[in-house]
User: What shape does this take?
Amino acid sequence: MRAIVDGSSAVFAALVAVVAVLSSRRRRREQDRLRRRAAGNGWTFTAHPEVDWGRWLPGGNRHGPGPAFSTV
Assistant: This one.
């Protein structure tokens, strides 16, 4: 019985690792796509802008605002 539990734990850990890697790659591809779109339109892309008003967003948004596009 102990071997089955250990095997299940290893499979679960491997599955979590695979999901984490795939999620990271997906996020990177999406940010690259947004950077290309911004560059093509003469904009600037910021993945996580540093703003002080982010903590005041409704819903207790811990991570602050998402991607931002700007132009001057």
